[in-house]
Amino acid sequence: MENTQQLAARTLSMKSKLKEQRKGKNKLAWTLYLMLVPTIVYFVILTYFPLLHAILISMQNFHMIGDRPFVGLQNYSQVLSDQTFWSTFGNTLFLGIGILLIGFVAPIVIALSLNELLQTWLKRTIQMIIYIPHLFSWVVVGGLWIYLLTPNTGLVNVVLKLLGIPQVQFMTDPNLARWVIILVSVWKDVGYNCILYLAAMVSINPALYESARIDGATRWNEMWHITLPSLGRTMQVVGLLSIMGILRLFDQIYVMRNAVIEPKVDVLMTYVFDQGFKQIDSIGQATASALLILLLSLFLTLFTRRLVRYDDM
Question: If you average pLDDT over residues 226-248, what whole number do you get?
Fold first, then answer.
């Protein structure tokens, strides 16, 4: 009888403790939910509400003052039938893919090269030098390179003249200007991506290299069979972020373009800018084109996530 009473008392005690634990967990959960409220409010007010309003504007003949008649999908139809939209789309793909490919390979090569340096001071100095351009805005970087590539007084053409090479019209030859923009874009961000790869290399287990050396592996074998495979996840992240930015090129184009090269370097975002700010009566069409770019970026991102199996990382 006493054992039964003791068992019942223990059961009641356990139940009361469980209730107290549940209350504590519920309080903690509500505290966490309250902490999320400012973030949710921020996204609702500054992201989702403007997005819904943009969808509405894209279906109107929008005017800053006066009536805004509903036109349905007419703005989308005008954008898709506009030859300028498709030419800028082609420019975007050319510039974006060029920046993606060169900008993906270059930091890996530089990081692998820096990883082989034995002098720590030299390694850190080079890291600092190649990272500095990432800190500057495109106004500074674009202005700097436009000055350096000026036909008569630019440093590059001055050096070419000293070497007996004819002047090169870097920023007035449309085909050449494309590659200038690609290489300058890569130059600006290569230091940042390089540091990401160097940070990933630090986390590689040194025992793997020791085992490889015991088996007679060369430095090339170590790099090819240990270092590069270990950078796989970092490559996936950098690649995904780079692909997400292909259709959103704007700053470097806006800063470095001119009237001569515009047809070959204008991209989708400059098309939206020109439609929305230079042609005030085309705000509805500009909004429609911006939403189309958003949908294309979303599709490209989802496709890339599936392709690189990002969710399995």
Answer: 86
List of residues 6+ apart from 40 with CB closer than 8 A: none
Backbone angles phi, psi at 310, to 5 degrees: -60, -35
The residue with tokens 């902490």 is 35
Distance CA 120, CA 295 (A): 46
Q: Which CATH class is domain 81-312?
A: mainly alpha
Q: How confident is the model at residue 139 (pLDDT cuts 50, 70, 90)?
A: very high
Bigger pLDDT: 94 vs 9: 94
Rounded to an integer, what distance in angstroms lies between the CA atom of residue 277 and that of residue 254?
Answer: 13
How far apart are the C-alpha atoms of 195 and 136, rounded to whole Å?
Answer: 17
Helix, strand, coil percentages in the chain from 3-state DSSP, rounded to 5:
80, 0, 20
What pTM, to 2 d.p., does this model score?
A: 0.82
Q: Phi-psi region for residue 66, left (φ > 0), alpha (ψ -120 to 50) or beta?
A: left
Q: State which amino acid sits at residue 290.
A: A
Every domain of the chain and the residues it spans: 81-312
pLDDT of 8 strictly over 70: no
Cα(212)–Cα(215) distance, integer angstroms: 5
* Most confident option among 10-19, 209-218, 285-294: 285-294
